[in-house]
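Box S1 | Example of a co-folding query
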Amino acid sequence: MQEIIHSLIQELTQFQINTQGELDAFKTRFTNKKAVINDLFESFKSVPKEEKRVVGQMLNELKTKAYEKLEAAQEIFEKEKITFQIPHDLTLPGDAFVQGGRHPLAMVMNKLIHIFEQIGFEVASGPEIEDDWHNFSALNFRENHPARDMQDTFFVSLNPDYLLRTHTSSVQIRVMETQKPPIRILAPGRVYRNEAVSARSHCFFHQLEGLYIDRNVSFADMQQTLLYFAKSMFGENAKIRLRPSYFPFTEISAEMDVSCQICEGEGCGVCKHTGWLEIMGCGMVDPNVLENCGIDPDIYSGYAFGMGIDRLAMMTYKVPDLRMFSQNDIRLLRQFEKIEF
Ligand code: PHE
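Box S1 (continued) | Returned holo structure for phenylalanine
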C-alpha cells in the first residue's frame, strides 16, 4: 500500500494540467468520488494496525497535494477566462458610434426660438387636442365662421367639442387665462388641417406663435420686433413689408412678407417673381380676446404673430417636397447630421 501511495504522489507531481481536458482527467484520476484516493481511504480500514500511522500520514499527504494542485489549476483557468474576453488584437478598428442628428424642422424651430429668446420671449405650450373654446370661441371666431367647417378642422368624432388644433393661437388663450401681463411667450408646435396633401401642403404642419401683452404696446413695437427677427433670421439686408389682412382674433391684422433671400428682391421662381415671400400672420390682439381671458383691454394691449415652420425649413435647406419631413427617410435625415441648431 505504501508503495502504491508513493507512486501516486509521483504521478500526481508530474501530472500536467494545461487544458480543460487535462483538468477533467486529473479529477477523474485523483479527486472524484470514484477516483483512486477515495478507493485508498476505503481499503485503509484493512491496513494492519502497526502500519496504520505511516500509511495514514502518507494518504493525507497524497490527498492534500491532490487538492492543492486542483485548486491552483482551477484558479489559473478562472483568470484565463476573464482575460480571454479582452480582444487579443487591440489595434482592431472599433464599432462605429452613430450619432443622431437633428430634424431640419427642429433646427429651424430652435433657431427661431433662440432669436426671440434674446429679446425676452419664453416658450409656452398647449395640447394638440383642443376644445372649441381655446381654438375658436375665445379667439373671437363667430359660431358660423368657415374655419370651423368640417372641411378645415379634424373634429373628435366621439365629441365634436374637441378637435385637433388648427393653429397655435390656442396657446395664446391658455396663457392669458392663467398669467397676468406682462406676457411675452412663444408657442411652437404641430397643428392640423384637413387639406389635400401635396408637395407644398400637408394635413399637419408646424407653427411658431408669439404673443406680447403689456401696457402701451403699439403696432410700431410689433413692426420693430418683426424687423429684428427678419434680420436675425435672414441677414442684415433683409427687408419686411406688412400688408393689411384679416384674422378674427387681431385688429388690426397684417400679413408679413420678407424680401426674397434667393434673388434678393429681383424676382425668381421661389418668390413667384414678386421679390417677396409671405412669412407670417400678425396683428394687435383684439380687445374681445383680451376680455375673454379676463384681461382689461382698457389697461393692456398687445400683439400676436404666427408663422409656418415647414415652408421656412423647405426654403432654408432647399427641400423640394414638404412630405419628406414626415417620411423619416434616413437618406434625407443623414444630410442634416453635421448641421448645428
Ligand atoms: N393663427 C393664424 C394662422 O394660423 C396666424 C396668426 C397668429 C395671425 C397670430 C395673427 C396673429 O394663420
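The chain has a mean pLDDT of 91. Residues 167, 169, 209, 247, 250, 281-283, 304-306 surround phenylalanine (CB under 6 Å).
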